[in-house]
Design goal:
This protein is 43% helix and 17% strand. It is of the alpha/beta class and 332 residues long. Helix 1 (2-9) crosses helix 10 (240-257), helix 2 packs across helix 10 and helix 5 (106-123) packs parallel to helix 6 (136-149).
């Protein structure tokens, strides 16, 4: 699927014109993400916003010879950046440092995401919103609550970007199995933090891995971000791989909006799968279409091993989601 979506996303024949706004374009994820979106020919209007540096990023990226306009916006221009946007991508926030979990970022990033969501609800209420800012398990519910409070919530247009877990799974499985990572398709369900990340290895061609290999592979997919945080030694977290993941997912959303068929990605959405158990948001395969979410797919057949992982993920997700909704209740 990776090669198929990448080919589509960078095809030169776009039937419609789309405005994409990147909120947090000056950061470690935002800059490479902006470059990759400039290369997507479906993006005809690229709006780059940040509290500082966005005009510079826009000037730099604008020199890439693809058929789109790019403009950078400062803090007093958020309305202009958002107005008319078809897709809003939110990588804004602070990066992790060694020893931090995604949840440790909550207090800072929750306020940032809430304020950007308020602006999006006012100036682009019909846009598809792709949330990258961590912790995704809590920031997506924050956006949902803000949109609900403004009376413009559309569950089909809100996404938590979990694509990096899918990319890591493909890469890490290929390293163990000695295969081509572009040919590995590993569904990753649950959430986007530690033990809420559940790779469905039984649904690949490698379902008979030894238990110790499966354990270490699952753990590496769940905590792959820690490798990057540690290797960067205080200088940041996964930015380049996350930018690629964000660009792939944004491209998939645009392909869906454009009416292309069979656009399927794993993403953290308002989901019916476990709502009766109190899990309002859950990541699974989703078919994307002109209205956003066209269909939320079930998890399929799981191994006993994966059933246990999903059970643990659900217990943690309930707490993560509540943390996001409580934040908006207490800090409107």
């Amino acid at each position: 699927m990776l090669s198929r979506i990448a080919t589509r996303s960078f095809s030169s024949s776009a039937s419609n014109a789309y405005k994409v706004a990147v909120l947090g374009a000056g950061g470690g994820i935002g800059q490479p993400l902006s470059l990759l979106l400039k290369l997507n020919h479906k993006v005809t209007d690229l709006a780059l916003y940040d509290i500082k540096g966005a005009p510079g990023v826009a000037a730099d990226v604008s020199h890439v010879p693809t058929n789109s306009t790019v403009k950078g916006y400062n803090p007093d221009q958020l309305k202009e950046a958002l107005t008319g946007a078809d897709v809003i991508v939110i990588p804004a926030g602070v990066p992790r440092k060694p020893g931090m979990t995604r949840d440790d970022l909550f207090n800072t990033n929750a306020s940032i995401v809430r304020d950007l969501a308020k602006a999006a609800a006012e100036y682009a209420p019909k846009a598809a919103i792709a949330v990258i800012a961590n912790p995704v398990n809590s920031t997506v519910p924050i956006v949902a609550e803000v949109f609900r409070s403004k009376g413009v919530y559309n569950p089909k247009k809100l996404f938590g970007v979990t694509t990096l877990d899918v990319l890591r799974a493909a890469r890490f499985v290929s390293e163990v199995a000695g295969t081509n990572p572009t040919q590995e398709h590993v569904p990753v369900v649950g959430g986007h933090s530690g033990i809420t990340i559940v790779p469905l290895l039984s649904q690949t061609t490698h379902k008979d891995l030894p238990k110790d290999t499966k354990d270490s592979l699952t753990h590496r997919i769940q905590f792959g971000g820690d490798e990057v945080v540690k290797a960067k030694d205080g200088a940041g977290s996964a930015t380049l791989s996350m930018a690629q993941a964000g660009a792939r997912f944004t491209g998939a959303v645009l392909n869906g909006l454009d009416g292309e068929k069979d656009i399927i990605e794993c993403t953290f959405v308002d989901s019916p799968l476990f709502k009766d158990e109190g899990v309002e948001f859950f990541s699974s395969k989703v078919t994307l279409g002109p209205e956003g979410v066209k269909q939320v797919h079930g998890l399929g057949e799981l191994s006993d091993y994966e059933e246990d992982l999903v059970k643990t993920a659900k217990e943690t997700l309930i707490k993560n989601i509540k943390k996001g909704t409580d934040f908006v209740d207490q800090n409107p």
